[in-house]
Amino acid sequence: MIYDGHCHVASTDFIPEAFIGDVVAGMSRRLAAASAGPAPQRLHDDYVAHHQDHHADRLVAEMDAAGVARAVLMVPDFSLVMPTKLGLAEMARRHHDIQRRHPGRFWVYLGADPRRGPEGADAFADLLDEYGFDGFKLYPPCGFSPSDRIVYPYYEVCRSRSLPVFVHTGPTAHSLTFTPAEALLIDQAARDFPDVTFVLGHGGVTDVEVTSYLAAYRPNIYLDTGGFAASPLPGGWPAHLNRLFRMGVNHKIIFGTDWPLNQLTGGLPRLLGEILEGDEVLAGVPRRDRDLILGGNLLRVLSPESASVAAPGPPPGTVR
Amino acid sequence: MDVDTATLHQELVEWIENWNEGETDRPVTVDTPLLTTGLLDSMGMVAYLSFLEDRSGRKFDMMSFPGGRSATIRQTVEHCLQ
């Protein structure tokens, strides 16, 4: 079975307009430097048009075409730093509806800005329990360190339920703060909560020199590969992933795409095709390690209840 | 807008060549894969499709385009004009 450990619903209901504006502005700047591409407003309209998959139907179609059995849906909470169309409770309900619409296809990691304090932690716990969600999505670029004590009540919520914490690291929308997204900032929290699993979002892509030693030496830190195909990587992403998969931390790497990135270049079918059928990404990577990266490690970080819903199946590369 | 496919193909070949500013040894034809060969990256594809839409007067529906990584000029034009 292949599992995608990092996806989003490509919907303007969940992704703030300001976030989309930042992304489009970055694209416009790059294209303008080459004196090419559409006008910014047209680029914006096209980008918005690609984010109307409000029920994840297109994502499921791509998963089917790519041989991805299940995926994790991330629900980051931007609501204290950007205007959002829906509140956290409504986003949670909508993601639960998506789970019911596509039975057996999605786990959900719910976000929460920890600056809402203990009351926010209680509300977060209530939503986790009401919908049976599977993890915590933390977004430090909103302006807090993942080791700030304000986050600890939320980690306690996860610890008591054996839920993983997925922590964004590295760059993001330009109006957010990059400093708290440095991977090493997770170290204190990882030491203070040794029985909580922390997954460094994009940790297999950004600052790999740091993230790889965190994964190698901290028992409860894992790496996610989300965004690999949309990141500026010397030599291209297939070569980067192959180097990553030869660093001796394959027992800590969770495959994720960060869909809906890469829609313009073939989406999930193209990415999985290049990984499984290309001659570079998995070259020299033992079969056992491939299975861990493409699904096994995700099951290891999920709670027993969440992992149990994933039916056993053929190893990666045989489901397409 | 009436579209002369042969003329459009040639314009797109020239656009790809200009985008690469002569820095590729690979000959560009209407059947050359655009992404796997490195002729375009994702940003280049955005610019390319914008040019295709401008020249054809049609909207390119990326969501239903099956070409993916092996997309060629011929495939993108056929999809845009269908």
Order of helices and strands of chain A: EHHHEHEHEHEHEHEHEHHH
Name of the top-level CATH class of chain A: Alpha Beta
CATH architect. name of chain B = Orthogonal Bundle
Strand content of chain A: 5-15%
Helix content of chain B: 40-55%
CATH superfamily of chain B: ACP-like
Oligomer: heterodimer
Helix content of chain A: 40-55%
> Number of helix segments of chain A?
12
Average predicted confidence as pLDDT of chain A: 93
- Count structural domains of chain B: 1
Q: Which sheet architecture does the biggest sheet of chain A show?
A: 8 strands, parallel
Q: How many domains of chain A, as an integer?
A: 1
What is the approximate shape of chain A? globular
Please give a structural write-up.
The complex is a heterodimer of chains A (320) and B (82). Chain A is built from 12 helices and 8 strands. Chain A has an 8-stranded parallel beta sheet with strand order 1-2-3-4-5-6-7-8. In chain A, 50% of the residues are buried. With 320 residues, chain A is of the alpha/beta class. Chain B has 82 residues and is an all-alpha fold. Chain B has one domain (5-81): ACP-like (Non-ribosomal Peptide Synthetase Peptidyl Carrier Protein, Chain A, Orthogonal Bundle). Chain B has helices at 5-19, 42-56, 73-81. In chain B, α1 (5-19) runs antiparallel to α2 and α2 crosses α3. Chain A binds chain B through residues 27, 30-31, 34, 36-38, 42-43, 50, 58, 230, 262-267, 269-270, 273-274, and chain B through 19, 35, 41-43, 45-47, 49-51, 53, 62-63, 67-69, 71.
